[in-house]
Amino acid sequence: MQFLSLEKVTGILNISFGLNIPKAIVYFVSGNVTTAEFGAVVGDPVLDVLLCQEYSIKEVDFAPGRIGQLNEQALLIRSSSLSGSLLNVSKDVDQCESRPLIYGGLPLVGPNQKKVGSLLDLLHDFGLWADDLVKIPVSTNDKNAPLPQCMLIHRALSKNVISYSTPLVSLRSLRPLLELIHPLSDKESNNLRGYLRSLLPHTRATHMPIERFYAFASAIESIAQRRSQDVGDRARRAIHQLIQNTTKSSEAVNA
């Protein structure tokens, strides 16, 4: 986006989150970002979504050319410059309390067991779900967010009004597993930490999809096996138990 701004281009930047998920669209006029749209999310909040869910972005394509009439509701008004807007957005995302549970690319089960393609689909078509989500009682566990939609989504996830279709493994549940292979060498610690980061939906995530946990568990088991046969066996049993508990919990939520 900064490159396009510097080149003073005019055209449309299309940001794809993958097949069957609507694209986010950002409009440039002579290098100025004028408007941004992602379905029900318009204007400055679109930049919040893009930065928050950058790990979900699959493809970016720019189509140069003149732009027709712009959506007045989608105007970016936060800052007169792109760098200023992105700086403000970065602060918003860093301070967002809801983000640790917001995973854009994962499929959801919506209110009344309605299937939703992904959390990004829910955001894009938020009007279809808003009535159900605003009815959820306010809670002391509510988390603030720059986007009111994300605050409502977090509340709904916390109360299991909506849930992820994919079983999620809590990072807290990994502690007993990691304790089995302590102490770690500096190399092992750095490798595991880096590998774990690469498997998370985003940097502040508190959970990982169970499919990605399998890969992380394999790395844990490999280290445990190098410790001794006994440590390897205990690690395998702990991994199996964690997978069982996670799967049962997810089935109960989505039942």
Task: Give the end-to-end Cα distance, rounded to a whole number of Å.
Answer: 43 Å
Low-confidence runs (pLDDT<50, min 5 residues)?
none
User: For the largest beta sheet, what order do the strands appear in spatially?
Assistant: 4-3-2-1-5
Secondary structure tally: strands: 10
Q: Report the C-alpha radius of gyration, rounded.
A: 21 Å
Mean pLDDT: 92
Residue share in β-strands: 15-25%
How large is the count of helical segments? 10
Main sheet properties: 5 strands, antiparallel
Helix content: 40-55%
Structural class: alpha+beta
- Given the C-alpha coordinates, what overall shape results? globular
Secondary-structure element string: HEEEEHEHEEHHHEEHHEHH
Write up what this structure looks like.
The protein is an alpha+beta fold and 255 residues long. Helices cover 44% and strands 15% of the residues. It contains ten helices and ten strands. It has a five-stranded antiparallel sheet with strand order 4-3-2-1-5, with helices on one face. It has a three-stranded antiparallel sheet with strand order 7-6-8. A two-stranded antiparallel ribbon has the order 9-10. Strand 2 and strand 3 form a beta hairpin. Helix 2 packs across helix 3, helix 8 runs antiparallel to helix 9 and helix 9 packs antiparallel against helix 10. The radius of gyration is 21 Å and the shape is globular.
